[in-house]
Specification:
By secondary structure, the chain is mainly beta. It has one helix at residues 83-88, and strands at residues 10-14, 18-22, 24-30, 34-39, 42-57, 62-76. A six-stranded antiparallel beta sheet has the order 1-2-6-5-4-3. The mean pLDDT is 86.
Length: 89
């Protein structure tokens, strides 16, 4: 994927226990209660309990989270680099 190409972003939440997100460009931080994902247009904070990143493919922009999802909160993007970009840059 080219860096100037915008990806479509979508969410699918199944029974509050499995979240599929597309259009993800990075993951800033994660633990069992919060995951901070970055999309082209905003940051997405996923709050819950026993959260696990089941799958993450940044080349396809796909993130799959399992656990109990309580909240999805959007905010504007920051210029801060995420953990995976810092590790592999």
């Amino acid at each position: 994927m080219q860096s100037n190409e915008k990806t479509l972003h979508s969410l699918t939440l199944e029974a509050q226990k499995r979240l599929s997100v597309t259009g993800v460009t990075d993951v800033d931080a994660f633990n069992e209660t919060e995951i901070r994902a970055v999309t082209d247009s905003s940051s997405l904070l996923i709050k819950g309990e026993d959260l696990h990143i089941e799958a993450l493919d940044l080349s396809l922009g796909e993130l799959v989270v399992t656990g109990v999802v309580f909240a999805l909160v959007y905010s504007s993007n920051t210029s801060q680099k995420g953990i995976f970009k810092r590790m592999f840059s």
